[in-house]
Amino acid sequence: MIITILYYILVAFVVFLMGWNLIKSKKWQEEILYVIVLLPFLLRLLRLK
Amino acid sequence: MNARKTVIIVLGLVLAGFSGLSFYRSRRLPEPVVIGPSVTRVEKLSAYFPAIKGSSNDANVYVLEGAKKGGTFLILGGSHPEEPAARLVTWILTENAVLEQGRIFVLNSAGRSATTVTRPGGAYPESYTIKTPWGGQTFRMGDRWANPLDQWPDPEVYIHYPTRQNLAYMDIRNLNRAWPGRRNGTLTEKTCYALTELIDKENVDVVIDLHEAELQYPVISTIVAHEKGLEIAAMASMVLTDEEFKIGMEKSPPELHGLSHREIGDHTKAIPLLFETPEPFLDATRGRTDAKLLLEGKDEFVVRAGKRGLLYEKIDEKGWPIDVRVGRHCSTIIQVLAVWSEDHADKAVAMKNVPKYAEVIQKGTGAFLRDPAKADPKLIYFE
Question: How many CB atoms within 10 Å of residue A28?
């Protein structure tokens, strides 16, 4: 259970990092890439997939 | 934040919303069971091991009892939910079987968590529908392994308890690699522990674990038996091959651990048997992985693999339809009950009103599923 919680914290951290990079990005190609890569992390964090 | 960035983020959120909703709905697709005349009670698996209470694997246990005392069988469907014939047979049993003697415990979703997910990257359908005289009944597709939402992460190597045999990492979520289970282990290990407790507390004589297999896997169209069950399996195999369809028998390898046909025999008084039917949907060389392939069992690429001698079971253009696979399991159960009862008159288990192979093929699996819309609500349970 402790390892599972740590993994969810890691996922939340990755979501935060990619969200931050998305906001700071200047190129539209990178923004689309960040959104696509974010999806599975977001779905796992929300316990949907 | 500029307008372009806002549009991209909103589009991303819409995509996440749609996909998330789809995953949420398929995970919670209701699967009704209209209990039949011999079901005297429906327990939760947690009644045998409270630590799994409220978890995704706290499955329904349907208890079928005859008027006359006899032996006790446990029949497991859904150890691997992506093998649908196994689950459909348990629906036929719980909704139709009439027990005259003995008891049968049935789990339609032994690995319930694995019914709530499909294989990542496998392009599986999220559900499949069996045609019935009243329309159709839809079932969750499921996977071989428990849902990562219920047990995550996987280790680098799965070390089986208690043997410490090293197994593939993802098999830590495989119900048929976690027997006999562990009291303080993962959800999958706890589930196997709960089932082992059920076997012990209810003095189960024979456990039947229903499965399907890809045609490229050597253990197919067979009964796998622990040493204790070799005579039953041999006799059932001979009679079935003579009278209905070809089916083999195999001895459970003593050094391959975690499987029901090994560990139940080693750790309880029960005799474990595992049945396999062919399911082309599982073959690695399959084409489009959809509900049609799952139910019709027809695939030109698997046929081509067969022509090159790469398969352990025959296949032609007719494929392996679901009714053939369900019928094989039904007849094998009936035959095993007959062999057991003949050898153990004091612990006989007499069951009727379950169709045999030819009848399932003639009428279709759906003919034996009951319409929940027309049933007394008190008789309906959900998997």
Answer: 13
Alpha carbon of B197: minimum distance to chain A alpha carbons (Å): 23
Query: CA of A17, closest CA in chain B: separation in Å?
Result: 15
What is the number of domains present in chain B? 1
Mean pLDDT of all residues in chain B?
97
In a domain, B148, yes or no: yes
**B15 → chain A, closest CA residue:** A39
DSSP-assigned states of every residue in B272-287: EEEEEEE-GGG-TT-S
B42-78 pLDDT, tens per residue?
A: 999 999 999 999 999 999 999 999 999 999 999 999 9
| Domain residue ranges of chain A, discontinuous segments joined by + | 2-45
Q: Which helix (H) or strand (E) holds B100?
A: strand B98-107
How many CB atoms sit inside 10 A of residue A17's CB? 13
Alpha-carbon Rg for chain A, nearest whole angstrom, is 12
Place of tokens 């019935």: B132
Stated as kind and residue range, the H or E segment containing B314 is none
Query: Does residue B310 lie in a domain region?
Result: yes
C-alpha pair distances (Å), B367 with each of B92, B332, B361, B381:
9, 19, 10, 19
Domain span at B189: 31-382
Residue B218 above 90 pLDDT?
Answer: yes
Phi, psi of A8 (to 5 degrees): -65, -35
Residue with tokens 């919670």: B28
Other CB atoms within 10 Å distance of the CB of residue B122: 12
What part of B 12-31 touches A (C-beta under 8 Å)?
12, 15-16, 19-20, 23-24
Look up residue B71 and give its DSSP letter: E
> Could you report the per-residue pLDDT of B242-264, keeping only the tens digit for each?
999 999 999 999 999 999 999 99
